[in-house]
UniProtKB/TrEMBL annotation:
<dbReference type="InterPro" id="IPR036986">
    <property type="entry name" value="S4_RNA-bd_sf"/>
</dbReference>
<feature type="domain" description="RNA-binding S4">
    <location>
        <begin position="3"/>
        <end position="61"/>
    </location>
</feature>
<protein>
    <recommendedName>
        <fullName>Pseudouridine synthase</fullName>
        <ecNumber>5.4.99.-</ecNumber>
    </recommendedName>
</protein>
<comment type="similarity">
    <text>Belongs to the pseudouridine synthase RsuA family.</text>
</comment>
<dbReference type="InterPro" id="IPR002942">
    <property type="entry name" value="S4_RNA-bd"/>
</dbReference>
<dbReference type="InterPro" id="IPR020094">
    <property type="entry name" value="TruA/RsuA/RluB/E/F_N"/>
</dbReference>
<dbReference type="Pfam" id="PF00849">
    <property type="entry name" value="PseudoU_synth_2"/>
</dbReference>
<dbReference type="InterPro" id="IPR018496">
    <property type="entry name" value="PsdUridine_synth_RsuA/RluB_CS"/>
</dbReference>
<dbReference type="InterPro" id="IPR000748">
    <property type="entry name" value="PsdUridine_synth_RsuA/RluB/E/F"/>
</dbReference>
<dbReference type="InterPro" id="IPR020103">
    <property type="entry name" value="PsdUridine_synth_cat_dom_sf"/>
</dbReference>
<dbReference type="GO" id="GO:0160138">
    <property type="term" value="F:23S rRNA pseudouridine(2604) synthase activity"/>
</dbReference>
<dbReference type="GO" id="GO:0003723">
    <property type="term" value="F:RNA binding"/>
</dbReference>
<keyword id="KW-0413">Isomerase</keyword>
<dbReference type="InterPro" id="IPR050343">
    <property type="entry name" value="RsuA_PseudoU_synthase"/>
</dbReference>
<keyword id="KW-0694">RNA-binding</keyword>
<dbReference type="InterPro" id="IPR042092">
    <property type="entry name" value="PsdUridine_s_RsuA/RluB/E/F_cat"/>
</dbReference>
<dbReference type="GO" id="GO:0000455">
    <property type="term" value="P:enzyme-directed rRNA pseudouridine synthesis"/>
</dbReference>
């Protein structure tokens, strides 16, 4: 590493390069206890401090999409033998955004960016999640209409949503809600049991070309699109009773 001191400061996420120049001009920046001046370079092993506080290198943000197989639990609790973290065995700390039931499969996001987790999980964001669901008996028009218009589960009526028959026992559903085990509970309320549930899309990201059990990083374009989609979301907020914003 050999970069200018203002770029080093901005790369840590402490402030912009322009603001870093002001700190340097004010004599508030040191490199190895020597007051820095504009144009100084920072090399590997150098200690850069602002107002006597060492600057820590910012962690690179990780955003990944996993096609979760059945039997993996969306928990970071390593006491659970089927936990998603041990399954991935990734080199640094990451955590899932929302969850899929152990018996469900399909798309789930993982990241080390707590800020984007909060934004995506907020119910007010109304982000779409798309699923293909197989049930234990043939679906009919009455069932499809009921699913579309809302089903009473857990003391509330689910929001209206897109539902389309895809086969004798199979349908596609797009949710913006994320109540706990929502699709399974909706089906059970109408006398059906879910035999297979696969999430195929979250927001702008799909399972395309991602085999079961495999993962990939988001592309730059995907990150930019998601950032734009959550731009109006505050970091904290009332989930309006929706405690699992990315559940199925």
């Amino acid at each position: 590493m050999d970069i200018s001191v203002n770029k080093y400061i901005s790369d840590t996420g402490f402030c912009s390069r322009r603001e870093a120049d002001k700190y340097i001009e004010q004599g508030r920046v040191t490199i190895n206890d020597n007051i820095a001046s504009k144009g100084n370079r920072v090399k590997t092993g150098d200690v850069v401090e602002v107002d006597g506080e060492p600057l820590k290198k910012k962690k690179a943000t990780i955003y990944m999409a996993l096609n979760k197989p059945k039997g993996i639990t969306c928990t970071t609790d390593t006491k659970d033998k089927s936990n998603i973290i041990d399954y991935l065995n990734y080199s640094s700390r990451i955590f899932p955004i929302g969850r899929l039931d152990k018996l469900s499969e399909g798309l789930i996001f993982l990241t080390n960016d707590g800020d984007i987790v909060n934004k995506i999980l907020r119910a007010g964001n109304q982000h779409e999640k798309e699923y293909i669901v197989t049930v234990d008996k043939p679906v009919n028009l009455e069932f499809i209409k009921a699913m579309r218009n809302g089903v009473k589960i857990m003391g509330v009526v689910t929001q209206k949503c897109f539902v389309q028959q895809e086969g004798t026992n199979r349908f596609r559903i797009i949710l913006t809600q994320g109540l706990n085990r929502q699709i399974r509970r909706m089906c059970e309320a109408l006398g059906y049991n879910v035999e297979a549930l696969r999430r195929t899309r979250i927001m702008n990201i799909t399972l395309k070309d991602l085999p079961p059990g495999k993962w990939r990083y988001f592309t730059k374009e995907e990150i930019n699109t998601i950032s734009a989609m959550v731009a109006n979301s505050s970091k904290t907020g009332n989930n309006a009773g929706n405690t699992e914003g990315m559940d199925e």
